[in-house]
Amino acid sequence: MELYSEADKTIWEEKYMPVSLKKGQKVSLTKGNPGLKNVVVGIGWDINAFDTGGDFDLDAAAFCLTDSGRVSDSNDFVFYGNLVHPSGAVQHMGDNLTGAGDGDDEQIQIDLSKIPANISKVAFTVTIYDAETRRQNFGQVSNAFIRIVDETTNQELIRYDLGEDFSIETAVVVGELYRHDGEWKFNAIGSGFQGGLAALCGHYGIDVA
């Protein structure tokens, strides 16, 4: 006996199943979730068996950007050395030094209602700490993902699995939240950089010297 019809199943999936994105896809976060305010951005990864023998210390970060695509202030860079944005809108939940275990390896809390008006985009990145010395790169990292969870209901809204298309990169722009016509949307980017955190900082207008 079938308890649920196909129509019921479709309605349930549309309401409760996370949207799984591919590289380059964009989706509205708030259109189907009116009143959405507090979200958690979880980022995770696994290390391949043929790594360099040392721990991989991957670091998630958030760059709060203006319409220019750059930060207006160094405090707009939220990472393990600056855990909370001055507005309170973006908070890094702490550094995971090894990436061991299942689920999110690092998390960033976002309060959409507190994001300042001059910030139109929040870019989420992952870099490998001390990658050059440890001879490590994203070709040795697998199963990397980013997901966005409604903190109130603990419901996963969006998930983007990055795939295995990296080799020598030491930094990745995973995705970004951005404002568009009064909505918050998410863009699955998955773009790699060489040069680690310094290259990312330069890209977003932060002087690392």
Structure, explained:
- With 209 residues, the chain is mainly beta.
- The chain is 11% helix and 39% strand.
- It is built from three helices and twelve strands, in the order αββββββββαββββα.
- The protein has helices spanning 6-16, 131-134, 196-203; strands at residues 19-21, 26-28, 38-47, 58-65, 77-78, 90-92, 106-111, 121-128, 141-150, 155-161, 171-180, 183-193.
- The strands form two sheets. A six-stranded mixed β-sheet has the order 1-10-9-3-7-6, with no helix packed on it.
- A hairpin with a 2-residue loop joins strand 11 (171-180) and strand 12 (183-193).
- The longest helix is centred in the first third of the chain and has 11 residues, at 6-16.
- It is globular.
- The N and C termini lie far apart (68 Å).
- Residues 8-14 have low confidence and may be disordered.
